[in-house]
Amino acid sequence: MQNSTLKPARKERLADTVYGQILDEITAGRFTSGDKLPSEAELSHSFAVSRPVVREALLRLTTDGLIQSRRGIGTFVSTRPSSRLTELAKTSELSSYLRSFEPRIVLEVEAARLAAQRRTRADLDRAHAAIEALRVAIASGQRGQEQDIEFHDAVARAAGNEYFCDLLNDLRQPVTETMNIGLELARERSPGRRLRIIEEHTRILDAIAAEDSDAAASYMKYHLMQARAAVLDARHLENSQALDIAPRARG
Amino acid sequence: MQNSTLKPARKERLADTVYGQILDEITAGRFTSGDKLPSEAELSHSFAVSRPVVREALLRLTTDGLIQSRRGIGTFVSTRPSSRLTELAKTSELSSYLRSFEPRIVLEVEAARLAAQRRTRADLDRAHAAIEALRVAIASGQRGQEQDIEFHDAVARAAGNEYFCDLLNDLRQPVTETMNIGLELARERSPGRRLRIIEEHTRILDAIAAEDSDAAASYMKYHLMQARAAVLDARHLENSQALDIAPRARG
Amino acid sequence: MQNSTLKPARKERLADTVYGQILDEITAGRFTSGDKLPSEAELSHSFAVSRPVVREALLRLTTDGLIQSRRGIGTFVSTRPSSRLTELAKTSELSSYLRSFEPRIVLEVEAARLAAQRRTRADLDRAHAAIEALRVAIASGQRGQEQDIEFHDAVARAAGNEYFCDLLNDLRQPVTETMNIGLELARERSPGRRLRIIEEHTRILDAIAAEDSDAAASYMKYHLMQARAAVLDARHLENSQALDIAPRARG
Amino acid sequence: MQNSTLKPARKERLADTVYGQILDEITAGRFTSGDKLPSEAELSHSFAVSRPVVREALLRLTTDGLIQSRRGIGTFVSTRPSSRLTELAKTSELSSYLRSFEPRIVLEVEAARLAAQRRTRADLDRAHAAIEALRVAIASGQRGQEQDIEFHDAVARAAGNEYFCDLLNDLRQPVTETMNIGLELARERSPGRRLRIIEEHTRILDAIAAEDSDAAASYMKYHLMQARAAVLDARHLENSQALDIAPRARG
Question: Which residue range or ranges hold the HTH gntR-type domain (chains A, B, C, D) (predicted)?
């Protein structure tokens, strides 16, 4: 495989652009939650791209929880992300950044599983120090992305297989971008989400320390799924009505 | 289920008893967090059982996060469960109840995965009604275990395969016992844990509604791992120091 | 959950019947490989059942690899099972039998994973004896289903958790039915498939003996997927053109 | 990938060397199947390395199925790989090559799962052409590693996420090395193993074509586990006594 494969195919890049354009409409409130989106044919016409490109963009928006299709009825907006999102990232690049979670999740989950079997005392100390530094950073109002990355590096290193470190290093750029967005949105919001970030990391480390592979893998998976959801605020319930103790009506 | 197979072998039952005896010592504070346990030989002598029985009991206490062994040094108590635990259940039966989580987790995780692919509108409504009823029950100071069971039944039914319902039905007794303990301990504590219970159920249902199999499976797994941990309060961080925003020293 | 839940709902039972009727047509050669099936509306009319029932039956036939739908074109027969199948089982019950693989696979895969961690010498001996007995049975022209069941019981027992044995016992009837069909079809065919059955069991046991949880789980999963496929001879490549060393055209 | 992270730590490299030295002894027949290995202390003395380095090397030999430890008794040789192995690769590098399977398996298994959901007609055609080319290559006595790589690339591409292609590209060197060894050993042996290689690839592709994510993932995992085992001929039963239909004694 040559360098050429490092770039996504043209269709994929066009779909990223269309994804960004629809996301802009949603973020700006021109398509709002519950709204029916225009048909594939209409979107293909408006954005001047082929229907397979539109279909690909819609598929990704669905995967990311921003829209939902109901068979035979149409496609609807399900979430409106923070308006800050468009300031924190180019919407045309978000789709690509989010796609990096697919390989990242399987790599980090496996690294956590192996770390629970192979970690040394030094590995645990390093990961623990990273969490403490993250706690301090967050408490003092910083994003803490360096400390967050340091924790994930410590886990990868504890897996005792240098390939995990190398491969995650190759994903460094999209990982850093999504981490910045997620941590920044958390920083600006309720202390609840910030506490959760510390808690999720601690739980992973505790499972690794207890040599519980299955728990380490599950908690890492949960953490990364939350991290992905946090970027778009989609299907991310921490401050949703789910937390009201009072009964609520379902939309 | 034939009766003959319902009883664990003699060694297993003895190990359950020894498990309960050690747990009693921990809960009563005679062995406390950080304490080194007596050796296998000493425990075998005190409890008048063979060493394989002691080893089996220690293995389960380790799996349940109550003790931790450090190679070449010894075995240490890692958590002290609520003293209420011994009032809520016979400690000699707790090991068996907790063991039911092993098959329960794989069955319910698969049911959630399939439910995301096959659920009907009626399935979603039933599960949603169960969560709302659980919210009301918890808000009015009840345990809510009927509503909790109703939710899990609704997910199993949404899997579109009657075997899941039948098999979970066969696990009804230990599931009810552990649910009672976990919900009762949550009821007596901070509202935080109670809110989490609602949130965890909502997240599973949202993933099923969104037809996201992988998320539904992961969130169900996370929920059941938390439920298991809640019974013993072990490795259960919700109200641990992990949530202090201030730096802490690690033991 | 009451006894009533032990029976599938009426829609499910009707779907099983329609599944059996379509399967009869395929087995009898009235619908053959590559043929387009009548539309949902036509099938609903012919079998005098509602369209959701037809849809459910088609969904299961697809899951079982007997038919395949191509978006916007129609549904096509993909495999013709052995004509012996209709002699070995009532086609109206096959769908239910096959459905038992869904919980069975997750339970036995988890049992194999735990067995690799907890098996005693006696467990290994019992499982090994079962494989040797299966080898003898097959070599002397018998089906060997008792020996096959004995092996799977031995693995469940080695998991050190009596609930696995109990739950698999509850699945005994559909497991025995599908095992009989699969082993009988293997018995009547090339020695290749019979050798594979021995090999698949041996591989699982070797992984359990080597305390390799991940391999034990993967090999059990592979074995049960092959067992399910063997019942219908669908997507079951052992004697397909895939084994011709010469290039072939794809249909 | 930054160069600094490409190199394993010093301890890891030393462990690779010791792994290679012990493997040399086994391949040359100086330690044979069933033999007890010298103790950690003795090995540490013979190879003039620290005991943690010896322990790490033994751990990897165990993971790779070459040796087996029995608690309290000692460590035993379990398999003697082909003597051709030492001609095909430097034994000091084998450990590192084999380690690449850990991230490779999770990446390719996830790629296969996603490919079953997203593959286009062109993806299927490309993967099918690769299998046909592999069949021709093998039939004419070649190794076929280019065609084998082409198949795996086609699956990664079908996952519709360019990161999978990029990351697997980063693993290209160890993947090519292990593939060469496995295919060369298969080429020199019975046609059975060569047929299996074609069959395993076909089964993956059939599951992807049938949009069966779970089967695609399982078959890919099985295939890669077989591929890893094939390098060392360890726990690789294809031509073992397991295939004799006659009863055998267990060692």
Answer: 12-80
Q: Best mutation site among B124, B239, B245, B248 for testing chain A: the one with the most A CBs within 10 Å?
A: B245
Closest Cα in chain A to B138: A245
A110 and A71 in a single domain? The answer is: no
Partners of residue C74 on adjacent β-strands: C70
Partners of residue A194 in chain B, C-beta under 8 Å: 245
- Domain membership of residue C238 (yes or no) is no
- What DSSP assignment string belongs to D206-240? HHHHTT-HHHHHHHHHHHHHHHHHHHHTTT--TTS
CA angle C64, C67, C69 (to 5 degrees): 120
Answer whether A246 touches B (CB < 8 Å). yes
Q: Do D168 and A114 touch (CB under 8 A)?
A: no
CA of D138, closest CA in chain A: separation in Å? 22
Q: Which of B20, D62, B39, B60 is nearest to C118 (CA)?
A: B60
Task: Note whether residue C141 is domain-resident.
Answer: yes
**D41 and D77 together in one domain:** yes
Out of B199, B221, B243, closest to residue A218 by CB: B221
C103 Cβ under 8 Å from any chain B Cβ: yes
**Residue among D173, D184, D176 at smallest CA distance from D233:** D184
Any CB–CB contact under 8 A between B139 and chain A? yes
C1·B103 Cβ contact <8 A: no
DSSP track, chain C: --GGGGSPPHHHHHHHHHHHHHHHHHHTTSS-TTPBPPPHHHHHHHHT--HHHHHHHHHHHHHTTSEEEETTTEEEE-----TTHHHHS-HHHHHHHHHTHHHHHHHHHHHHHHHHHH--HHHHHHHHHHHHHHHHHHHTT---HHHHHHHHHHHHHHTT-HHHHHHHHHTHHHHHHHHHHHHHHHHTS-HHHHHHHHHHHHHHHHHHHTT-HHHHHHHHHHHHHHHHHHHHTTT--TTSGGG-SS-----
C165 touches chain B (CB under 8 A): yes
Q: Given CB atoms, is B168 within the 8 Å cutoff of chain C? A: yes
Whether residue D251 has pLDDT greater than 60: no
Which CATH number fits the domain that encloses residue B21?
1.10.10.10
pLDDT tens digits, residue range D13-61?
888 899 999 998 888 888 877 788 999 999 999 999 999 899 989 988 8
Q: What percent of chain B has pLDDT over 70?
A: 87
CATH of the domain at A121: 1.20.120.530
Is there a domain that residue B92 lies in? Answer: no
My answer on whether A72 and A156 are in the same domain is no
With an 8 Å Cβ cutoff, are B246 and A198 in contact?
Answer: no
Domain shared by A198 and A117, yes or no: yes
In this structure, is residue B226 part of a structural domain? Answer: yes
- For residues A223 and A125, state if they share a domain: yes
CB-based contact, A93 to chain D, within 8 Å: no
- End-of-domain residue from the set C36, C64, C87: C87
Query: What's the domain range around B77?
Result: 9-83
Domain end marker among B57, B83, B109: B83
Q: To the nearest whole number, what is the mean pLDDT of chain C?
A: 84
- At D9 the pLDDT is 58
Does any CB of chain B come closer than 8 Å to the CB of residue A198? yes
> Which residue of C lies nearest to B16 if distances are taken between CA atoms?
C161
The verdict on A78 and A104 lying in the same domain is no
Asked whether residue D114 falls in the same domain as residue D70, the answer is: no
C-beta atoms of C243 and D195 within 8 A: yes
Quick one: pLDDT at residue D107? Answer: 98
| Residues 104-123 of chain B whose Cβ lies under 8 A from any Cβ of chain C | 106-107, 109-110, 114, 118
When divided into structural domains, chain D yields a total of 2
pLDDT tens column, B232-250: 865 443 333 333 333 333 3
Looking at the fold, whether B190 and B116 belong to one and the same domain comes out as yes
